[in-house]
Design a protein that fits this description.
The protein is globular. Strands 12-11-15-13-14 form a five-stranded mixed β-sheet, with no helix packed on it. It has a four-stranded antiparallel β-sheet with strand order 1-6-5-3, with no helix packed on it. The protein starts with a strand and ends with a helix. The protein is of the alpha/beta class and 413 residues long. Helix 1 packs parallel to helix 5 (162-176), helix 4 crosses helix 6 and helix 5 crosses helix 8 (247-259). It contains 14 helices and 15 strands. It has three domains: 4-77 and 264-332, Phosphatidylinositol 3-kinase Catalytic Subunit, Chain A, domain 1 (Ubiquitin-like (UB roll)); 89-259, NADH-ubiquinone oxidoreductase 51kDa subunit (Rossmann fold, 3-Layer(aba) Sandwich), CATH 3.40.50; 348-412, no CATH class. The structure holds iron/sulfur cluster (SF4) (2 copies). Residues 343-349, 360, 391-394, 396, 398 line the site of one iron/sulfur cluster.
Length: 413
């Protein structure tokens, strides 16, 4: 348990109305740390006993900052996140309780227990739940696919907490009245993952769907091919009548409905490439990645820290904190800058692109700052997987060009 935690508000929305509890307030593990948190966000909760020090803004992945409440932890607090796996019978006891509440009450419950997720493999959970109040969904889909085979976090969570994952999916299917509850699991997933999910889902409505997990299949846009429905990458799956969440989010939802457990910690996987080591950790929410790296004996100033699959080039500052955002980190030795060569029209980027658009054309559109050209070359379909940049023999900054175009689009709105 770090000495200090900067616990962010749960989600990426504007939280200007949030009032942090006053400095000096003594808090117990699980206490709310703020008031007036907007409906679109989850409550920041104290992951440990301690004392409120003040309010701050903290970084998530990329350059997004959100309000947070800083607490000084009591050194004798038990680390958050050492959850005990539950028995399968707990699900049949839970479901009648869930059927007795409606979706609005369920959203309030999840928010008050600090449950949220918003990452590449699991789009904004609270926004999706609110969306189901306006537009029904027919499918709840749990994404157990890992986006990087070297960091099998989702597989591991499903392997250790099959009951919680299954309970989360079935609870949401019951609340939304979805007729299908699915979990997409890689054919090649660890047998322990398959065994755990099979045991937990036996005799329930959860169907396990074996899939080939070729990168970047774990992205919701590509996963939604299961339903034959197309989804633009910047839209919520609920637009296509699907509520989609990953195994980590489903386990948090399941724990909340099974045993009223708040989300005070997240499971994370950290791959240290230079030492060829992978660490699986339960990390209290609000832990700075610099503290995490110090614990692992890695000097934060000498590495390139990336979230998710490193091909996505999602750079993370060591000042960012553990939360419901990205849960996998790769530590790389910073690479020397490379001068790109001209495009040789080899079309490798086109052949590698999973959504069949034209990355070289998008770079041209970025260089010409031409949104019409960007549209022509298929910008809207890009999932920012980074395959095009990775395969380009001329080392052209294709993904960087795509992100520039998207930033241009956002500022023009
Ligand atoms: S990042 Fe490149 S390869 Fe990936 S979807 Fe976008 S254009 Fe295609
Ligand atoms: S892979 Fe690189 S060099 Fe080849 S066509 Fe695409 S942008 Fe040009």
């Amino acid at each position: 348990m770090p000495g200090r935690l900067a616990v962010p508000v749960g989600g990426y929305g504007a939280a200007d109305a949030m009032e942090a509890r006053p400095a000096g307030t003594i808090v117990r593990r699980g206490d709310a740390l703020a008031e007036n948190v907007p409906q679109s966000l989850a409550m920041p909760l104290a992951p440990a006993d301690g004392r409120v020090v003040g309010a701050a803004r903290v970084l998530f992945t990329g350059d997004r900052t959100v309000p947070a409440v800083v607490i000084e932890c009591n050194p004798s607090t038990e680390p958050a996140g050492a959850e005990k796996a539950l028995a399968a019978g707990a699900i049949s006891e839970m479901l009648p309780r869930v059927r007795a509440i409606d979706m609005s009450a369920a959203i309030d419950l999840l928010r008050s227990r600090g449950v949220w997720a918003n990452r590449w493999t699991s789009p904004d959970l609270i926004a999706q739940l609110h969306a189901t109040l306006r537009k029904p969904v027919d499918t709840v889909l749990c994404n157990v696919l890992d986006e990087d085979a070297a960091l099998p976090l989702q597989t591991r969570i499903a392997g250790n907490y099959g009951v919680e994952v299954t309970a989360g999916v079935l609870a949401l299917a019951s609340l939304t009245k979805a007729r299908r509850a699915w979990a997409a699991v890689a054919h090649s997933a660890d047998p322990a993952c398959w065994a755990s999910l099979r045991r937990a889902s036996a005799g329930t409505d959860l169907a396990l769907l074996p899939l080939q997990n070729d990168y970047p299949r774990a992205h919701p846009t590509l996963l939604l091919e299961l339903t034959d429905r197309a989804l633009r990458p910047d839209r919520l799956p609920t637009e296509q009548n699907v509520l989609l969440l990953d195994a980590a989010a489903a386990a948090a939802v399941g724990r909340c409905f099974l045993s009223d457990e708040p989300m005070l910690a997240v499971s994370m996987a950290v791959r240290d490439r230079s030492r060829n080591k992978t660490h699986f950790l339960n990390v209290p929410i609000g832990t700075a990645f610099s503290d995490l790296l110090a614990d692992l004996g890695v000097p934060a100033d000498s590495i390139d820290l990336r979230a998710g699959n490193p091909l996505r080039e999602q750079h993370v500052a060591s000042a960012a904190v553990a939360c419901g955002g990205e849960l996998t980190l790769t530590l790389l030795t910073p690479a020397p800058a490379v001068n790109p060569d001209p495009c040789i029209r080899c079309a490798w980027c086109v052949e590698g692109c999973p959504v069949h658009i034209q990355p070289a054309g998008l770079l041209e559109a970025a260089q010409q700052e031409d949104p019409y050209l960007a549209h022509q070359y298929g910008l809207e379909a890009c999932v920012e997987c980074g395959i095009c940049s990775f395969v380009c023999p001329s080392h052209l900054p294709l993904l960087a060009g795509i992100r520039t175009l998207r930033a241009m689009q956002r500022s023009a709105r």
